[in-house]
Amino acid sequence: MEKIIQFIANYDEWQAIKKLRVDEKTDPKMVMEFLASLGTSFDAKIEENLRKIVDLGKMDAALDEIQYGKSEEEIANALRTVNSRGVSAAIKEIVQKPELQKNEQRELEQFCRVYAFKKALKNCGLSIDYSSVEIPGMKRLQKRKV
After folding, report:
1. What distance in Å separates the CA atoms of residue 88 and residue 140, rounded to the nearest whole number?
2. Which of 75-79, 89-93, 132-136, 137-141 has the lowest mean pLDDT?
3. How far apart are CA 44 and CA 48, in angstroms?
4. Per-residue CA distances from 25 to 35, 38, 63, 64 (Å)
5. How far is CA 47 from the centre of its chain?
């Protein structure tokens, strides 16, 4: 039986077909790189779709007030601020939509909180996902997208 990892997207402006055949000669590094590229695509599309539902501009404004840096103290302060009432209030405000049920609002709050933490950590210069890994074959693809 053939082993394969595949992903197909045909959604709005996102058309992608990614396949990787896996056999005994497949290097685990190749599988890792393939999965990292999928993860990067997924994260971008999650954020893009979140922006279609809520006003992340308000969240970004709240996050822009944070003092970012690379020291432990600056990172801890950024994380405390993301967990503060100010950012929580911004999240609550953007998810309060009459067309959404309470459980849907709570779900969106969680997506927004993940967005906020990822953005804060990235602004502190920390690698928060595999998108920052320089994969030789991916450089070519990233340049084409720009």
Report:
1. 39
2. 137-141
3. 6
4. 17, 22, 46, 48
5. 6
Alpha helices (H) along 1-146: 28-53, 56-64, 72-82, 85-95, 102-123, 136-145
What does the block give as tokens for 97? 């939509």
Tell me the backbone φ, ψ of residue 15, rounded to 5 degrees.
-115, 120
Q: What pLDDT band is residue 11 in, cutting at 50, 70 and 90?
A: confident
Name the β-bridge partners of 40: none
pTM, to two decimals: 0.83
Contact of 73 with 55, CB cutoff 8 Å? no
Phi, psi of 7 (to 5 degrees): -140, 135
For the chain, domain boundaries:
28-146
Q: Per-residue pLDDT tens for 36-50? A: 989 988 999 999 999
- Single-letter residue type at 69: G
Residue 53 has pLDDT above 80, yes or no: yes
